[in-house]
Design brief:
A: about 300 residues; alpha/beta; 9-stranded mixed β-sheet; B: about 350 residues; 8-stranded mixed β-sheet; 17 helices
Chain lengths: ~300, ~350
């Protein structure tokens, strides 16, 4: 598939996956790959501790202010509090947020209507999409088990709140999620037991419950094979032990990839394991090239 | 031979009565917590592990085929001590707490059936963490156990286990709450008006039905906040006492280590020193340096090329871990190598335990 066609299938890509699978790395890699196709990209982090800034080569973590990463890539942090602040300011209620938060009222409201913080974030993303801030927006979804409740929030909240501005936001955010020309979810998994199981469960929950369209699944950190490597069964030398280790891992990950392919009929984009444990912006540059190759081969 | 770090983690397991496992997501925290509990049981302790992760694999590995529940279940075939496991159900635990402090059955009913309560007990940020702390306290005072090990949510929420009791009391002690409840009690009409104004604003945003639920929830809760507050102080005291050990679990990748470093700084802010650092999924050391292997691999020999790559990653991991080791010093550091297969049964869990405390 032509990479540019791939990156213009929908305007928003939401990258989701459990903690530790490299979701944030993949977000940065996707952004760089899309930019390499000549597109402008807005990267959105939702998590205040997100390491996205560093992976994009910025000296500081991302904040609410939009920063220019390269001529084509811009990035920003969107938090519920700041999204609420923007919303209230746009509706003539500047400065109310800090008061609400100081009084702890936001806690009460968030509990009265769970998912309201997610709606605020999704509504902000929807608004950025409407403003067409870039050709493509890539969102690093919340970590761990929160991706499903995050994306389910519009539907859940519409049941609790049937009228008013929040309802409108929930309806519109839900429309964005359900429209495959506007939004797709890219799942990230590792070729390991638990990550594969979780990716399959998450995929079905997202498709059936929420009606989002799933793009190809990214299988991250796959050990590359070493040509002609053989494992002498009993030799105790370092090279023999290392060869057995490598081959056993390769075999296990093949099994898990097959299991993923059977459990989840989605095309797989494979990114290699990086033999340098320090993840830097250069690492994501290299991975972006690999990803473009993988997309061409789809 | 048992390394010094391993001996020290064994001391923690032998000597403390609570172990809190904290760290980033996806580094094997749940398995580490279970392996420590198994190690403790095989060293003669009566250990119970609380997991907050719906990890079916852990239940299977422990041979608890019916799955983990909110009540401890004993794992068969362990000795000389005992191993018990449970999975936290925050909603059920919250119900138990309410049951304990409710003044009468009628109040209990009103709370349990309130839809705001149903949301709070399932979704209020920090509820899960508070209930984890609550469960920890309950099991600590249960005579069946002398060691409680808990697996916490991923990093940023890990310390909510410590902070949540205070936050929940603050929530219940909230001005808005007082404003809603007090007029009914002592007729402070001025406060009532102010509260009504706030409520009306919120109602405009989230809808009137949600607010009506909030008001009736706080009214139903009336008279229970003192009990909650007292309990929260006891829980907090236990979590910051020397009986409790914090073990940081991480993996040797830059992002995981950054999160672990953040966690260790957060602990330091609360004047808590980690009792140990567990580095999971470290690449094994095959005893030959990357430079040597690289030289041998210069003619393209696949076996040496493989060893060179693996040695390089192992060495880069060691370099990355160094600052964290310094940050948590003098806490012992235990490395658990990357396993080719996931833990599927007690013997697999035993292998992990052996890495933690020695055979």
């Amino acid at each position: 598939m032509d990479p540019k066609a791939f990156f213009t299938t929908s305007r928003v890509l939401i990258v989701a996956g459990k903690g530790g699978v490299g979701k944030t790395t993949v977000t940065a890699v996707l952004a760089k790959a899309a930019a390499a196709c000549g597109l402008t990209v807005r990267v959105v982090a939702i998590d205040e501790e997100s390491p996205l800034g560093g992976l994009l080569g910025l000296p500081k973590p991302l904040g609410p202010k939009v920063v220019k990463v390269t001529p084509q890539i811009t990035a920003q942090l969107v938090t519920p509090m700041q999204a609420l602040d923007d919303y209230l300011r746009d509706h003539g209620m500047r400065g109310v947020t800090s008061q609400l938060s100081r009084l702890g009222i936001l806690d009460v409201v968030a509990s009265a209507a769970p998912g309201i913080d997610d709606i605020l974030v999704l509504a902000k993303i929807k608004q950025l999409d409407k403003q067409q801030v870039a050709d493509l927006m890539i969102v690093d979804a919340p970590a761990a088990g929160h991706a499903i409740p995050f994306l389910r929030a519009p539907r859940a909240l519409r049941e609790i709140i049937s009228v008013g501005p929040i309802n409108t936001q929930a309806v519109e955010a839900g429309e964005m999620l359900a429209d495959s020309t506007r939004c797709q979810v890219i799942l990230v998994a590792l070729a390991e037991e638990t990550p594969v199981n979780e990716a399959i469960e998450t995929a079905f929950a997202l498709e059936e419950d929420i009606g989002v369209t799933l793009g190809p699944i990214v299988v991250n950190a796959l050990y590359p094979a070493v040509d002609d490597l053989v494992a002498p069964p009993r030799a105790r030398s370092a090279i023999a032990t290392a060869a057995r280790f490598r081959l056993a891992r390769l075999q296990a990950q093949e099994e898990h990839r097959d299991r993923l392919a059977v459990g989840l009929p989605l095309p797989q984009l494979v990114l290699p394991f990086v033999f340098d444990a320090s993840l830097t912006s250069e690492t994501t540059d290299t991975l972006a090239e690999v990803l473009l190759e993988a997309i061409r081969a789809l | 031979m048992v390394s010094e770090a391993v001996a020290n983690l064994a001391d923690v397991i032998d000597g403390r009565s609570i172990i809190v496992c904290a760290g980033p997501g996806g580094v094997g925290k749940t398995t580490t917590a279970a392996a420590m509990a198994l190690a403790a049981a095989s060293r003669g302790r009566r250990a119970v592990v609380i997991t907050i992760d719906p990890a079916r694999r852990l239940a299977d590995a422990l041979g608890l085929t019916a799955g983990l529940t909110n009540q401890p279940q004993q794992v068969k075939g362990i000795g000389p001590g005992e191993l018990w496991a449970l999975m936290l159900d925050p909603k059920q635990t919250f119900d138990d707490v309410v049951r304990r402090y409710a003044n009468d059955p009628e109040q209990l009913d009103r709370i349990l059936n309130n839809s705001f309560y149903k949301n709070v007990s399932g979704a209020l940020s920090g509820t899960q963490e508070y209930m984890a702390a609550e469960k920890l306290y309950e099991l600590h005072h249960d005579d069946r156990f002398d060691l409680v090990i808990i697996d916490t949510p991923p990093t940023r929420h890990a310390l909510d286990v410590i902070d949540a009791p205070r936050r929940l009391t603050r929530f219940l002690d909230h001005r808005l709450y007082r404003a809603i409840v007090m007029p009914a009690r002592i007729g402070l009409r001025v406060v009532n008006f102010a509260a009504q104004a706030v409520l009306k604003t919120i109602a405009k945003i989230v809808g009137g039905a949600a607010i009506a639920d909030v008001v009736s929830f706080f009214q139903a809760f009336d008279g229970m906040e003192a009990g909650f507050g007292e309990r929260a102080s006891l829980v907090l005291a236990l979590l910051t006492s020397p009986e409790t050990a914090y073990v940081i679990v991480t993996a040797p990748r830059q992002d995981r280590l950054d999160e672990a470093a953040w966690l260790s700084a957060q602990l330091a802010e609360r004047k808590i020193k980690p009792a140990a650092l567990v580095v999971n999924r470290a690449h094994p050391d095959f005893g030959i340096s990357a430079v040597e292997a690289r030289a041998e691999a210069s003619d393209g020999d696949p076996a040496w090329t493989n060893l060179a790559q693996l040695a390089e990653v192992a060495e880069s991991e060691e370099r990355l871990i160094t600052p964290l080791i310094a940050a948590v010093a003098p806490a012992p550091v235990v490395r658990v190598p990357l396993l080719v297969r996931d833990v599927h049964d007690l013997s697999g869990l035993g292998d992990v335990a052996a890495h933690l405390v020695g055979r």
